[in-house]
Protein 1
Amino acid sequence: MDAAFPVTLSLQTAALALALVTPLGLGLAWLQARRSYPLRSAVDALILLPLVLPPSVVGYFLVVLFGRRGLLGQWLEQILDIRLIFSPAAAVIASALVALPLLVKTAQPAIEAVPLELEHVGSSLGLTSVQVFFRITMPMAWPGIAAAMVLAFARAIGEFGATLMFAGNVPGRTNTMPIEIFAAYQRGDDSRAMLYVAILTVISCLVVFVAARLGPVRTQR
Amino acid sequence: MSSPALEARFQVEVGLGADAFQLQVDLTLPLGVLVLYGPSGAGKSLSLTALAGLTPLQSGRVVVAGQVFDDVAGGSRVETRHRQLGYVPQHNALFPFCDVEQNIAFGLPRGERRKGNPAIEELMQEVGVAGLRAAHPASLSGGERQRVALARALAVQPQLLLLDEPFAFIDPRGRKDLREVLRRSLHSRGISAVLVTHSRDEALAMGDCVALYERGRTLRSGPAGEVLADQD
């Protein structure tokens, strides 16, 4: 089998998961950082859930939800003819879900650290809430947001348990690098396992390096 | 006869439980500069954010130049971005990721934010920061920052300026210069301002009217000389 496929698939899966989770995660990070509302603590707990639950449990929930007889899966298959389970899209969803808490919890303090006065000035200058976010909050919190995205990408590319449960190990279709390591190890193909171990280790080291380089922006008093 | 620049009577409550702070305010400014004067923690800055629509009122009304911004009983409220107020906070007044010129042009429509816009050029000249156009806030003195923040507020042609301790953290010479710049700018545009200070000298130097604050309420207000006569 093509040795490059798991690498390409993992990179594509992680990139798509990041694209999927970034708008949602930043929206949630902003909501938790800037708004107080009755269910705020409950939403906070819900965001953290994929981080504290065993990945196999997250994967099981995804199967229950999106499986062929799942609550949403049934509907998706009947109405839109989309079958998510055991597909590359399932790997993307599983990776996005486990990356979400890391993205939100890294971006949230960065948003909280943006001085409220600057956002107030923006509003007084006629900016809408969306403009305030993109023209003031985002540039100010950018190092933290970028670090959050880098960490989310790393979590997504390394995702194993939920992906195995939901996307399975379909060679040439859903065998991402972590899944390929597990499969190769079980077959006793150590050299193949080592190849992906080395690639994932290099990627993880790069991520740690990049995240550490992204420091907070300075504000004046 | 034209409407007063500001008529505001409202109540605001912030914080919860033991940290709750209640503010009761009665302000009137026919025209010119209204100084909110009083000790720290009396509610002056909170009054500014309430006037700007950044802190919701519990009850009361805010009317600026005849336009009702807040009327809690009547259920009407104008969003901050539609109030056309120039707000300059005490801290973190400038965007650190923009240079002086970009800071001043920040509130303008995209097409007018280009470098070399004559209107921005004129404003920079007016407040005396033309030589600093490419400088970033971190390299500016306190007085220069306030000038830039003032120019940015003026750029969007506000009907009222809200200035929170504009003379704090500025040396005496810089203070005098900034006072001159502010007076000139307000006069040439015919706009009014609400200015927060805890300095009696500043209040006397800048205020046409003064509202005296103490522990979350306005004790009295009126012409600067009268209100501050018995204040040390």
Protein 2
Amino acid sequence: MAIVERPATPALQLPPGAAVAERPLGVFTRPTATTGWRSWLTTVDHKRIGIMYGAAALFFFFMGGVEALMIRVQLTAPDSKLYSADLYNQIFTMHGVTMIFLVVMPMGAAFMNYLMPLQIGARDVAFPRLNAFSFWTFLFGGIFLNTSWFLGGGANGGWFAYAPNTSVTFSPGHGMDFYALGLQITGIASLVGAINLIVTVLNMRAPGMTLMKMPVFTWMAFVTQLLLVFAIPVISVALVLLTLDRTFDANFFNTAAGADALLWEHLFWIFGHPEVYILILPAFGVVSEIIPVFSRKPIFGYPFMVFSGIAIGFMGWGVWAHHMFASGMGPISVAAFSMSTMFIAVPTGVKILNWLATMWGGRITFSTPMLFAIGLVTMFTIGGLSGVTHAVAPADTQQTDTYYIVAHFHYVIFGGALFAFLGGFYFWWPKVFGWILNDKVGKWQFWLTLIGFNLTFGPMHILGLQGMPRRQHSYKEGYGFELWNHVATVGAFIIALAFLVFAYNIIASWRAHKANPVNPGPDPWDSRSLEWMLPSPTPAHNFDEVPTVSHLDEFWHRKYAEDETGKVVRVATSEEAAQKGDATNVHLPSPSYWPLVLAAALPLIGYGLIFSPAFAVVGGITVLLAAYGWGLEPADDPEAHHAHAAHDEHDEHGDGDDGPGDDDGDDSPEPKDDDDGEVVAASVKESSDDE
Amino acid sequence: MSDHILTLGGVQEEQPAHDAHATSTGISNEKLAMWVFLGSDCLLFGALISTYLLLRHRSTTGPEHLRVPKDVFDIPFTSVSSFVLLMSSLTMALAVGAIHRGDIRRCRAFLATTALLGATFIGGQVYEFTAFKREGLGFTTNLFGSAFYTLTGFHGAHVSIGIMFLLSLFVMSLRGNLGPDKAETVEIFGLYWHFVDIVWILIFTIVYLIP
């Protein structure tokens, strides 16, 4: 990305020659808006994409939350007849699928997209347009999945969708088709996003930012993306096989034709267990950023933090069959996976002890982000311990398919991932939006969430050990399930109340900010990593000048140093150490319509496979055209550090003629050649503001 | 042609400097992304091949003689088409070499040859599929049919996408848009093409040769 010196006003006008190049297929002009809704549709800014991931995740969280409440309402009392067994199946399946694929994963993606480039000192991700494509594909995939409610009913085979139970024979509606195709689409989003972020971490680090100087959050994001890159293709294959079976009468899961019912289970859990770490590792990263800041200490045992994350990333591939202890796969497999599952508790335990050691002796401030972070440490530990009990195969065969399992995974995913992300919202909100969420209301939210959470999922341990099975739409009286189900439902509504408090906090804090705007400054919490070096909200171009990094916790080391007695003293205020954010004429990647168009075509193919091939043909042609439109559109080289690199780029696409006369112009600073004007939507705006 | 190359040589000189300071690893973003994608694709084919290995001898439906893979295959025919595909890797490598030397015309010719060899392979696959279908082995006939067509079909789709890329590169070079500055694009595509060929070596061995 170059800092391009050029006059601002003429840049707004496209030279006539360039206009042709900007309409590769004669369809679109290059979008230039920087404000208004259209700018959000075409944005390639990793920060805006991160915000949209977060907003979409909260929207789907609302849907998944309503589904959760519906489940709890049904189960409050025995013999409840509110919904039929089939509708109940749809509700709990869609609750699980929504919360995992459309809430926790994109919420992690929101933090990773927004923060990771900032933490490594980059101006954007490696492939900004692909990043936009990932987001839109995820969003359309999620919407596609949820349209099943209006087109014959939601998926009803559980989030794990065990085949052949999900074959047409046992699940005749279209729900499982939507499941298979919808997750296929969101899988494409995750895979593309993962490749993008891996390349970003490896290639776009600021000078001096070695791998072992990267913040723990960036490290955990990196491990997560590696897990995604290798896990997604496996679920993709499983989903393809399921679609082929359901739509094209293939035999993969047709046990009558000799198929093996374990095939799906293996394929699904080879993806499914790394998926668990895909959900939790970004949350571990978030907490590893929050705890040191509010304990006024560096993270304890940074290399251990990093390598335990990597170890989880590796070992996560060797434990999948602990989901299958009851499937009859044989004693040797059971023993082996039992052992490996016990071992994977070790690196997780290392992390928990390191967080505790970070807090030990620190000057702890119990503000809202810290409370949520401590919430993760405690709640995740409970979930982790009940997880270790699953590793004991004989015990697990008793626990499996009971509410004990439901309790366990809610303690790790809600008590783990969601607590961390809520803390992350409070922590980075001022950085993202330039105003701060009310801490007092936040504390109310935390305590309500904590109480509601434990009331909901704590009793499920007991229910499970009493033998209450999962996924059943009602239970009979007299088994002793009444009391704890009652408590769980009350707890669920307390959680709902807690999220209403969150919504209230967002609105009220925003109103308070509007009435009396106070900028929180670049560094409201006296933090440690590079994103706090930028003004709040982060300017479109991120860094005025890419920082040169010499320490882990670089920003902290720019604020504090040791005096001659070895005592740590403050050497600069946050404002002095931070950048001003007033650079102009920074060359930013151009917005584009193509990611949106390409992503929108994918659900069409999905509908086509379910309802009528005509949609699929239209979708397929759109994909093809969009791919070529994308390919022919002048790409911006995000890491071109000087103006003439951008010129090269345009020359190749612009003239379509490499004739002998083409050797000039590449390096000449004549204004006529300055066709990156259209490119720099954001900076044009900025520079014209400035002048 | 020669002054053409000379002209573009000026552009080429800038290229290494541009790449060197651009990324932390020294590898360009595009190339690194292709490597990561290929790593991911390994798992895709890994899952498909495992599925095939699990299911190939388990068919219980359809005609008896179509349940055992070795009774169905025409090994000599597939060996020839495999040879054709492997030769396309050679021409792909030659195309990459040519564009690195700045020899656009030769690069174009080798790209076209690669596409042609790839298309011949796909033609062979289409012929093979129709021949099996005529014998009675459809996609839905039995487990072996489903697993075989899916695995080889996925590979065929990879080759077909590769051919589309090759043709796009070919058209770009005809229009003069494929100069030595694009050598890396051709090289990155070459990685994909070689990967697809290597996967075929695995599939050919596992599906056709191992009884």
